[in-house]
Amino acid sequence: MPDTDMVSRLREGDEAAFADLTAAYNPALLRVAMLHVRTRAVAEEVVQETWIGVLRGLDRFEGRSSLKTWIFRILTNIAISRGVREARSLPFSSLADGEIETGEEPVDPSRFFPADHDQWPGHWSLGPTSWRTPEQGLLTGETLDRILLTVNALPPAQRTVITLRDIEGWSAEEVAAALEISAGNQRVLLHRARGKVRTAVEEYFGTVEPTVA
Question: Taking the complete model, does pTM exceed 0.70, yes or no?
Fold first, then answer.
């Protein structure tokens, strides 16, 4: 429902609306909290404190950002405070910067022709395969397991961004605002994460050489 309607219902003490909101955001809140604290148990406490903060702060919510962004900023502030007490206080933006500065390539450079190739400079030498559609089973069984295993193994910032974008369905603007990172950094993290996931799925299906006319 629109933010204005949800906020109105929450201010009126609508327990069903609050239950819907927590069910929608708890998984993502927990993932972000775990970037700042040591254990899942502490992260769960951070999420609980976040919802308390949301209820206490509803009267101060002015709608300058989306309700989702406002909730995640409350979480981030609480998580960083807990992280400081646990000597783990690295903000997400620093974590993201660290991953971006590695200069890693999302796809193995050996899969491209060199820049001085006489016919296809910089083009695929070993191209990606066509994936089956969801109706053919792409998002079921072993393929889904491979995708989720790859996402879970990504560096923390990449894992968080691809989870919010491609699993939770957030927009680029929402992710950048909630995690307090630049639009450019959001794009780089997502590009790298998607590249690794695609590579993992291609390994499952096998790669094919492109047809050269």
Answer: no
